[in-house]
Amino acid sequence: MESILFTAASIMAVIMGLIAVFVRQKAAKRPLTLPKIIIPPVMMSTGALMYVFPYFRLTPFEIGEAIVMGLIFSIVLVVTTRYEEKDGRLYVRQSRMFPVILIGLLVLRIILKAILSLSISPGEIGGMFFLLAFVMIVVWRISMFIHLQTFNKQQIKSL
């Protein structure tokens, strides 16, 4: 049963990754705004309700591991995200590397999940990967917010 869950979760992760690539490429065509930065992590935070159920709860060590891995993965996103100004607005530049990086992180996630599933329950793995993804997204969005604030201050000074 657990191998079926693992396979189904891996397939869903691939599908969600492909959807994320498509959504990010479309979003790059619209200017960066505060709601576009804030809404994804806020909506994602509702997933933390999984921790209400003991099956998904993590030990302090697992929480630490997930946070550290999320921070490491976020560095890749922060470093590779480029911005450009068009018509006085800030845009996230479309990157040919973004799909490659996202798919690479996804493959790494599936490999780690396969290794961890030997010693950790599927619920705990789900909880760990949710926390990892949440930390990664929050750090990336904080970076975007800082870039947007810096850009807005420069725009005000130039007036």
From TrEMBL:
Keywords: Membrane, Transmembrane, Transmembrane helix. InterPro entries: CcdC, DUF1453. Signal peptide: none annotated. Pfam families: DUF1453. It comes from the Bacteria. The chain crosses the membrane at residues 6-25, 37-57, 63-80, 100-120, 126-148. The keyword Membrane applies. This is DUF1453 family protein. It comes from Salinicoccus hispanicus.
